[in-house]
Amino acid sequence: MNHLYYGDNLSVLQGSIRDESVDLIYLDPPFNSNASYNVLFKGPTGTESAAQIEAFDDTWHWNDSAEEAFGDVMRGGNAAASTMLRAIRQFLGDNDMMAYLAMMAVRLVELHRVLKPTGSLYLHCDPTASHYLKILLDAVFGAGNFTNEVIWQRTNTKSHAFTRFPSTHDVILYYRKSNEAAWHTQYLPHSDSYKKSHYGNIEEGTGRHYTLGDVTNPNPNRPNLTYEWMGVTKVWR
Q1: Which of 73, 98, 140, 232 could form a cystine bridge with 92, CB 3.0-4.6 A?
Q2: Which of 110, 114, 112, 111 is nearest to 141 (CA)?
Q3: Measured at the alpha carbon of residue 67, what is the angle toward residues 144 and 143, in degrees to the nearest 5?
Q4: Which residues span the domain enclosing 213?
Q5: Same-domain pairing of 154 and 219
Q6: Is residue 89 situated within a structural domain?
Q7: 144 Cβ contact partners less than 8 Å away, ≥ 6 residues apart
Q8: Region of poorest pLDDT, from 33-42, 114-123, 166-175
Q9: What does the pLDDT read at residue 235?
């Protein structure tokens, strides 16, 4: 299925995406960082509309929409998610951060629903809310399905007028749906300097790099293909 959906992702998830039908999810939601984002909408013909419409503010407030998102999680079928979100609300109260987390929680529950057992989710966030989001993901996916916290270091740091250390990274939280999740190890070719230092010999005709070594084990205190450790001899097979 190759579809591009345009609109509120929660509505799309609830109305158009089947259970366990998605292989991989990467989401880069707005950060709770008091920034504004603008989207330039296009008309039906593909031409730019005259007005630039502010699609959303990256400043969340506890209002009717936040209360509705919270209620959706409470009424949903994920008991762990509802318990965790309720506990966070008791701790934080009805403030901007809680509004952000309620908005995220209702979507994370839907994303978990549509993900295949072999699927994985990567959530891009920043340190402002990454610790709360990890707790929510532990509840939605199960703490045992947390796989990695990837630190994405930026090239340029954000200055804070010398009041604290600069912000230099974002966070990517990686969760698997289950133990069946697919993983494909990525390989890159060795650099020329590595091949030269580790495999300095080149086979004529093929160009294949290789190395030469002494396999006769000249060390008289250790038998060939064996080693001794705490009185126990291990034999390589």
Answers
A1: 98
A2: 112
A3: 5
A4: 192-235
A5: no
A6: yes
A7: none
A8: 33-42
A9: 42
Contact (Cβ atoms closer than 8 angstroms) between residue 124 and residue 31 = no
pLDDT value at residue 173: 97
Q: What is the CA radius of gyration of the chain?
A: 26
Assess if residue 183 is contained within a domain. Answer: no
Tell me the mean pLDDT in the region 215-227.
52
Enumerate residues 6+ apart whose C-beta is below 8 A from 5. 12, 16
Torsion of the alpha carbons at 97, 102, 108 and 114, rounded to the nearest 10: -160
- Is pTM beyond 0.85? Reply is no
CATH of the domain at 99: 3.40.50.150
Residues 122 and 156 in one domain: yes
148 and 31 assigned to the same domain: yes
How high does pLDDT run on average in the chain?
A: 80
Tell me if 16 is assigned to some domain: yes
200 lies in some domain: yes
Q: How does residue 24 score in pLDDT terms, banded at 50, 70 and 90?
A: very high
